[in-house]
Amino acid sequence: MAKGADRARYDRLVGEITEHDVHYYVEDSPVVPDAEYDRLYRELVEIESAHPDWVRPDSPTRRVAPEPRSDLAKVRRSVRMESLDNTYAKPDLEEFDRRVREGLPAGASPAYVVEPKIDGVSLELTYAGGSLVLATTRGDGTTGEDVTHNARTIRAIPLIAREKSGFVVRGEAYIRRKDLAAVNVEREAEGEEPFANPRNACAGSLRQLDARIAARRRMRFFAWDLVPGEDRFEAHSEALAWIGSQGFPVHGLERRCASFTEVLSAIDGLEKARPDLPFDIDGAVVKVDRYDERRALGSTAKAPRWAVAFKYPAERAVTRLLGIDVQVGRTGVLTPVARLETVKLAGTRVSQASLHNEDIIVERDIRVGDLVEVEKAGEIIPQVVRSLPEGRTGAEKPWRMPPACPSCGTAVEKRQGEAATRCPNRSCPAIVRALVRHFAMRSAMDIDGLGVKIVDQLAANGLVSDPADLYRLKDRREDLASLERMAAKSADNLLEAIEESRTSRTMGRLVFALGIPNVGAVAARGIAARYPTIRSLLDASPPIVEDDLSGTHGIGPVIAASVRTFLEDPGSRSLLERLERAGLVLVEERTAAGPLSGKSFCLTGKLSRPRARVQERIREAGGEVHDSVRQGTTYLVAGADVGRSKTEKARKIGTKVIDEAELERMLGG
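Structure (tokenized):
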């Protein structure tokens, strides 16, 4: 059929599929079933394969680059993409309105536009002659990264605009919650960690060198600005209407407000609508509408005086605690997890929540059967905030940690001064599985394809009893290939990934991969700097190692004692000896050059993504990571629930305190 297809049929297919993309990705109202869309798309691919000279630049197949890019080029923009000041309370908004009025001529009555603050990644799209020629991230506002190859995979972004002149549109790339769930299922099946939230998924996807990976992430886009809008219109609201008329997706949730009272009403309305939106918003943005008033107000060195972001509190919901299950981690720590009556929270259905440890359960008087309040603040698993004792009937039961490990039956231990309860049996099946998964994770030995289900099968079939056994799987290829959902090709891919980890990882990654209690990725690098080989660790006596590490910059007595305890354990020494016999080739640590070169960071509080991954990204960008705030630490990155001690110390010694959003901007996200 493709050979006999005519050019008219090809042109009709391009137009028809593009129109379907608009219905699906822009208007969110598909008019044909997925199967019909796929059939049309396959036909288009077949015609282009048979007639490569027909391929149009706006063809839907041109959205994905055929090969990975080797870098992300830096692009300097002529009009700075400014950050916004954040506010968290209505009096702060009133103060913003007062400053705006004071900055305008006497008697001025500014109109505002209130828009949802979508929890995504800002993009700037440049069009020349109506064609998309450049897409860049925010970066530091003036300089961003060229992600055109990935932006082209976002079907909501027009490759060819209706307006044929040159212009620039800014907006937000985002991922809907249900799409993130599907992406995370795929990642876990491939042995990768799930994304913590849609924003993290989107940021990571846009920075992929391989557009084929980005194309699988189901990203979408909303436009929210025309640059410079004042060249065409008198007000931002007029520019927004024009953007929508040009075929760009707009959320339609903006509201023009003639008074500050209307601003407050619009913000409240967005917050009420928030749970039912298919995408995450974490606040509202308030902007002065008229461009001449914006020019009169100007900007500070950091942010415009004519706009502000109002951040909503974390979403909470009330449900019933049906039971408490116990999970056993890689260090043997038993973690209680709440089993909940399913409730809708932040647009998703929640049936589990973290309870942290037994002490918190007792302190908050949380009982099985209680009505409880749960909160979701950028985490995959929500947290139980408190119980509601006023709703008790008398049937509720206090909970205590079981006396024996639920996996192996060994009596549990609770060390003096620690909140954690542990299983001391290193051969515990749950510990083995968790340790092997940890060993293989990206920030450790980075073994692609070694996901939860594969590890469980390896352990259940006696193929792996600790991480060192991974390097013996090459001798049991047939057994490996016989596992469910494995087969020969998958087995070979996994063996190849294991071999790669054997020959190209650093000692710091290996130390982190060992799962030593209290030893994170930063401390592991410090330990590796002092003991750069497996043999050097084995040859030094544990007391000497503890003394050496206690004097190492950035490693305190708790970490040093943990390493000593690890090395005194015969099972740990046996693991190290077998890893050494496996012939691990440990390469030298390399310091990357990048936008964070010369800067150092300390992380504190609850972060929206795994801490090890954030630390890795900082180092990849040339930055240094400190375990604690000390003289010379450039930035303290403060997540949620931060205590005062670190922030006060930071300010005292001149370390700047920033949030995750600011760090993301510095990284170019």
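The mean pLDDT is 86. The chain has six domains: 7-63, 86-311, 315-391, 429-503, 507-587, 600-667.
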